[in-house]
User: What shape does this take?
Amino acid sequence: MPIRVAKRPFLAGVTCRTQGWYLQHAPEVAPNPGLQWRFWVGGHVHERAREWLGEGVMLRRTPLEAAMEDTQQYVADATQQLLFETTFVWNGLVARADAIRRHGVEWDLIEIKSGKFKPDAKVDAEFVDDLAYTRMVAAGAGIKVARSLLVLINGEYRLNGTADPFAYVDLTEQVNARAAEFAAIADDVYAKVSADERPVPEMIFACKDCDWFKSDCVGRDIPDPLFVIPRISEKKFEALKHYERVSRLPADADLTDTQRKAVEVMQSGVPRVNHDGLSVLDLVQWPVRYLDFESISPAFPWFEETEPYQMVPFQYSLHRQDAPGAPVSHQEYLAPAEGDWRLYMTEVLLHDLGTSGSVIVYSSFEKQMLGVLAKTFPVLADQINAVISRLFDLEPVFKQGYQHPAFLGRTSIKKVLPVMVPELSYNSLVVNNGDDALGVFGLMRVKAMDEEFIPAKREQLLRYCELDTLAMVRLHEATAKLRGVS
Assistant: This one.
């Protein structure tokens, strides 16, 4: 039996044959909670979309031969109007259409995505590519495709409202053009992705987000690839890529001022202190609270006034210190997985925050979350806006006041903390990133987690969020020392 290549390795291989090869040959690994949550959301969206599309026949997906047999049988049956999970094979490539609907003697190809429909917004290129791949394989297998349609979640949908949960986007013209591009290179992509030996890799812009770049590919021995330059564009990368790494860039390289400063620090190997940038620390007022939220963005609203993918905070951690060097106390809140906790959480948070002193955060996310709560609960808006007026963002202190070569041009807390406070680490935590945190809470909310695991998972969420605010405490102390303030 010939080797079969599915959509994901093929599409990766269009950009980078090596990445496609890795995806084709990589062993399956257990998904982390963030990925488990995305799988659940995708399955739930597909289930609801099938209900919306109407009565149809669900075909077998496995084994492959049975799936192909089902597809051939039902496509040939003139009485069948709507088929779900059809399977097509062409030249070693396998594609599964979420749905096909009879359109005269042809078929409409339907791809269901969990993205949000926005009128007049440009459709993600990824969605076009997904449909184009399926169209190419289906057409190669003998299916006459009339239209290529994308189904997205309707941004106007509300819980218990009247708007449709989904909306169609006709991508026929774009998909036909892209499918033709794919067909022209399909044989080469298939040959290289399915080969026994890895294709010879080269450094391209797509390496920036590749899981194998640093561990198994061309970036293994490059600690400072050009991708670490802040906000480097693909165009600029292409112009500079012959240098391969930051340490080889000449002084006159075409960079913005921000990029140049970051590169100079990395090349020098010496931290840069800007006391004017650190001087904003003088604005901090005591007692100080350190605040961090965790939030989730449900595809379909959990509450009546929210829209699809609106962020909903479900947890916060709060450290308090009354004066420099004083003891640090901690308060926290983690919502129950049932019901609507938002008002109670907001009231408890306002009590914990008090009415005086700075509220230190890291990035603009907490300000955004407080804004969501103020809009949700107008009766509390004045109190929440008073908190917003007390916010002090610690991240700009690192952007403007202190740059370290080991930051590699970044200022996220995950980059800064290991350098500034090496004794604190997320690595020992089971839940150690925001994506997994929202995944754990989401799975609990939809009852997709065994109850016996929930107490331990809740404790893991609490410890992760606690470390976020403890990290702020220690980073504030570290920057205060740089400023010369005890």
